[in-house]
Amino acid sequence: MEDQHIVNMANQIASFFEAYPDQTEAIDGVSGHLKKFWSPKMRVKLKEIADQGDIDNIHHLVLDAIKLI
Amino acid sequence: MDDTRDYGTPKKDSATMVTLTIDGQKISVPQGTSIMRAASELGSSIPKLCATDSLEPFGSCRLCLVEIEGRRGYPASCTTPVDEGMVVSTQTPKLADIRKGVMELYISDHPLDCLTCSTNGDCELQDMAGAVGLREVRYGYEGENHLNAEKDESNPYFTFDPSKCIVCSRCVRACEETQGTFALTIDSRGFESKVSAGNKNFFDSECVSCGACVQACPTATLMENSVIQSGVPEKSVTTTCAYCGVGCSFNAEMKGEELVRMTPNKNGGANHGHSCVKGRFAWGYATHKDRITTPMIRKSIHDPWQEVTWEEAINYAASEIKRIQKKYGTDSVGAINSSRCTNEETFLVQKLVRAGFGNNNIDTCARVCHSPTGYGLKQTLGESAGTQNFDSVMKSDVIMVIGANPTDGHPVFGSQMKRRLRQGAKLIVVDPREIDLVNKSPHIRANYHLKLKPGTNVAIINAIAHVVVTENLVKQDFVDARCETDSFKKWADFVSLEKNSPEALHLETGVPAETVRQAARLFATENNGSIYYGLGVTEHSQGSTMVMGIANLAMATGNIGREGVGVNPLRGQNNVQGSCDMGSFPHEFPGYRHVSDTETREMLEKTWGVSLQSEPGLRIPNMLDSAIDGSFKGLYCQGEDIAQSDPNTQHVTHALESMECVIVQDLFLNETAMYAHVFLPGSSFLEKSGTFTNAERRISPVRRVMTPKNGYEDWEVTQMLSNALGYSMNYNHASEILDEIAKITPTFTNVSFERLDQQGSIQWPCNDDHPDGTPTMHVDEFVRGKGKFFITEYIPTTEKVNKRFPLILTTGRILSQYNVGAQTRRTNNSKWHSEDLIEVHPHDAEERGINEGDWVGISSRAGETVLRCKVTERVQPGVVYTTFHHPFSGANVITTDNSDWATNCPEFKVTAVQLTKVTQLSSWQEKYKSFSEEQISFVDSKKEKV
Q1: A36 and B587: CB-CB below 8 Å?
Q2: Which ipTM value was assigned to this complex?
Q3: Do residues B859 and B413 lie in contact, with contact meaning Cβ atoms separated by under 8 Å?
Q4: Which of A19, B580, B701, B900 places its Cα 20 to 30 Å from the Cα of B322?
Q5: How far is B587 from chain A (nearest CA, A)?
Q6: pLDDT digit string (tens) for B174-221?
């Protein structure tokens, strides 16, 4: 699966939860969604992309959520 | 449940009972009941011709006359309501004399060809002649008559023979009352009176071939061609239609193993005796010559197929799955099941994957249609299902239809909705296109049509919610009692923001702010407001957000938990609800329980005797992406055709080509099978036992009426594959699979074949708390306890128009065809829709020099195809529309792999495109043509050798 595609999907999830006024709730929403619906391999891939440091294209909620998955 | 009596007039509901005496017997019936019906309930049959209990009484045939003590004359029992203390005689010498005279007149202008008539033995006119004791016709046939009236054989499914018509108007009334099309009328007066389809033949008329007129006809005037050809059926078996999510109950009428006709079951809970052109007539695909009934294998998709025995095919498929898993790992294979298959079949495929393959890589075609419904309704209400039964619409005061086209996509329910609208319910349509309900259905006109730009659903629902909240139209007592206070407050604060006002969103949605305000007020202030929606809601990048937005609106206006209201997803295929219920998503076990739920997983591990994965598997798009990156190598695809139905066709076919073993189980060599290595022949819905669950959670029986042409029911094939893989399955009948489903799924606890035989159908949940099923959900509390509101920020799709792609393409379906067309294209339904067309607004057409019928190239960021053009104002400027029923059209060559944020449901409804007038096919179509011809030759050459 292409890196950009993985990032786009994660960013889409973050965009939904971004509207929540409580940021903790938003981060939990993103991490909860990733854990509940993404296969482990996809989550690992997302973490690897973030770990590589190329985070400009990654939504800040995703970066925070990754720490919880 | 199998009460097939015709009571003559419809049942009346009234709390007031009226007692009368008929032929010396007392009976109490609801006020408003006709004498005819009351007599029928006593077991006596008053002769009748123009009356039938699916239609309001008409009183024209003068055969049902009765005598009433204290009243003059001989009133028609069909049009005379019962009265307290009334004393009625239905059989007297005088009545017998009148009836015989009436019948004599009818027969004097009717062919005396009973012995060779197609309806001989099944004719109400014949029965009535016998009932009144008619022995002679004194008038002769020398006078003017209709015996040589010309037949109309234009419709491929039925014949209209006016020489046999008694002008009882049952067909006309059925077209009006039952179907709501008003295509038929009685032309002229007196002796010249005749049934007319608007002075056209039936095929060219407004007739939609629903069969209601044929069903209502008491003579052989309107008769199925299949009966004319084969004769009257000898037996009837009740089963369930295999087309759309309405799930109509039908009687399969048989002669031995030959299906002669399908007639709608008047006791069917979903359809009450009505049907559409697909279920009623388009079943010929089941015996079509294209069906493949012998298993085939091949090493490469570029090789001809090799016919093999079932044992060889199953062993080869199993050995390939084992080889791939050994080489690439447990998670390198998966399966896709289909909403066209039964609950038992989809259950077994997911069990095979979880227990046999050892992973959770199971997905279903609901991924590409209603997966956002499952997600959105689970989050807000607590259950992944619609809240009502279809009959609920008859108590709606205002109906909001969003992104659905019921008269085409769900025609039998569409007819019921139209009936309610003709009774006076208000209508709000939210759709980019002018569907028939807006202003093309007789006696119906939408109060408001919010003709929004594709992709702006969430903006519209937020704008409606803004009006409801800021104008104090919230049903606060309902919200306080039934919903989470905190989530409601957050949502109310959010939708109240100025950015969500109709005025602020007007430019985005294209809908005038005042129209949105008026529609919102109407919805919020009527007593019962219901919402019906379809794929125009779900197939968007914000599909799940929109489903939650709909649930928010229903809760805020107090429209949940009783008849006449609710959130009602109109499911595309017959068993979308069922396949989802059965655990066909990679993150859920049967009954929507997450794979990480330890208690459920341990229960299943104990029941199935294996350990199960606790992490979600791959969704269809994830499987395809993984195939291209080399980690997903084997697919078992039952009854699904992803190469035609899924977006970005070239991406799908690339993925299929990248796999080492694709196993397809289907009736036909479908588009996906052209990329397969193992073909396992499927069985049709007529050849198997099982159950389907429709859009109202109604579990209905599917009954085997003929021997499978391939030798096995589909669940048996899955079982063979499982056993060959080493995971033992030993079911002897589909009922045993349903028993297992009931055992492990709390919402199905009391469901069984035996129960369905007794009750006809059951709406889940059906368990000790709801022993007779659940027509309306969330009555006293939501399944999740308190209803939860979600903030639904509008986020425009990334699929945007620009100079290169200035138009938005949106897709839908048409009445006569069904989904990818594999079934309906192999029937006479193609006479109505032989190709997919691109609908273009006159302004856009003129700007591009395109005329009606021109070939038009449609290019998007994903690909290009060519279709013929239909110029129409149904679509708005800037929007074009097509259907996807023919593979050669390549509608999904141009759709992109954009998808819903929560579920990856593809964004079929929004694709930026450009149109140009062309004179030749697209390069994809040229390639497709030669590839499919080669693939078909690989099968045909095999058949020739046999």
Answers
A1: yes
A2: 0.97
A3: no
A4: B580
A5: 6
A6: 999 999 999 999 999 999 999 999 989 999 999 999 999 999 999 999
